[in-house]
Amino acid sequence: MGDNKLCLLLLLSSYALALASRFKAYKKYVYQYTTMSTNGVAGPANLRNGPKVTCQVEIEVPQTCSFVLHTRDCAVFEETAMDPNGQPVFSQAASSEAFQAAMEKNALKFTVERISSTQLYPEENEPVNILNIKRGIISALVVPDSEDKQISLMSTVHGKCFTDYQVNTRRDTATDVTLSRDLSQCDQFHGRELANSPLALLQKLHRPMLKLISSTQDCNYQFDNQQKHMTTAKCTEKHIFLPFSHE
Questions:
Q1: In which region does residue 204 sit, left (phi positive, over 0), alpha (psi from -120 to 50) or beta (all else)?
Q2: 0.85 exceeded by pTM
Q3: Which residues, including other chains, have CB under 8 Å from residue 138's CB and lie 6 or more apart?
Q4: Whole-angstrom distance, CA of residue 159 vs CA of residue 187
Q5: To the nearest whole number, what is the mean pLDDT of the chain?
Q6: CA–CA separation, 202 vs 142, rounded Å?
Q7: Distance CA 51, CA 32 (A)
Q8: What is the pLDDT of residues 65-89, one digit of tens each?
Q9: Quick one: average pLDDT of 139-154?
Q10: How far is it, in rounded angstroms, from Cα 100 to Cα 54?
Q11: Which of 8, 122, 156, 218 has a CA that sits 20 to 30 A from residue 35's CA?
Q12: Beta-ladder partners of 118
């Protein structure tokens, strides 16, 4: 009873109201999730490589403020070549079946109490790298409704980040929204052994090393005008290594 009262109080905020309207209680939302990491070195050779991950993502809403993330039919791919148009060609990695089993094994329960507080409740046996990928999925799906504030402090996979919120298209409601963040300024990151990016590519970075990396993130979201639920989300992160930085 106490939890229900707290949840109702939290719904008085514009953010909780927006989240409740986008992910309605007692419903399930299914998305096709794709994330790709490209590592490159500038120069004549233009070297590039990196993995790609795909999953079917289901968000179950057993009650307002509470969610359950299910990830199914996941696969991991490796970049093996470039086509004539300069686009990467991927082949399924040898570890893909093991990755699929690990992603499907446990559902991830989480709550979103306010814009800067997302609580995860993973199973004790959940591997750190698998949990980091799921954290990245949740971070991509949680979108504020803070049109009265140009900058909001949001809880993300990178920690608490100041976020620029821009409405690109509006009908009855905002249907096209862009969020931008300087990840280098994020704070209170809840550290894992494999930290920072949803693919856990930047591992155990200490403060001096973090100063040598410039990181930004831009996310674009499309919403259904009538039902208000999210239809598509696309996030792009850039991590630039600055080896000659004097800091």
A1: left
A2: no
A3: 69, 108, 110, 118, 120, 157
A4: 6
A5: 76
A6: 23
A7: 17
A8: 889 999 999 999 998 888 888 788 8
A9: 66
A10: 10
A11: 122
A12: 112
Whether the CB-CB separation of 157 and 144 falls below 8 Å is answered with: no
- The tokens describing 183, both together, are 């990840």
Total residues belonging to the chain: 247
Give the model confidence (pLDDT) of 102-125 as tens digits.
Answer: 999 999 999 887 655 678 899 999
Q: Which three-class secondary structure string do you get for the chain?
A: CHHHHHHHHHCCCHHHHHHHHHCCCCCEEEEEEEEECCEEECCCCCEEECEEEEEEEEEEEEECCEEEEEEEEEEEEEEEEECCCCCEEEEECCCHHHHHHHHHHCCEEEEEEECCEEEEECCCCCCHHHHHHHHHHHHHHCCCCCCCCCEEEEEECCEEEEEEEEEEEECCCEEEEEEEEEHHHCECCCCCCCCCCCCCCCCCCCHHHHCCEEEEEEEEEEECCCCCCEEEEEEEEEEEECCCCCC
Q: Which residues are within 8 A (CB) of 72 and not within 5 positions of it... i.e. 6 or more apart?
A: 55, 56, 58, 103, 104
Sequence-distant (≥ 6) Cβ neighbours of residue 4 within 8 angstroms:
none
> Which amino acid, one-letter code, is at 125?
N
**Residue found by looking up tokens 């990196």 in the block:** 50
Q: Are 28 and 58 in contact (CB under 8 A)?
A: yes
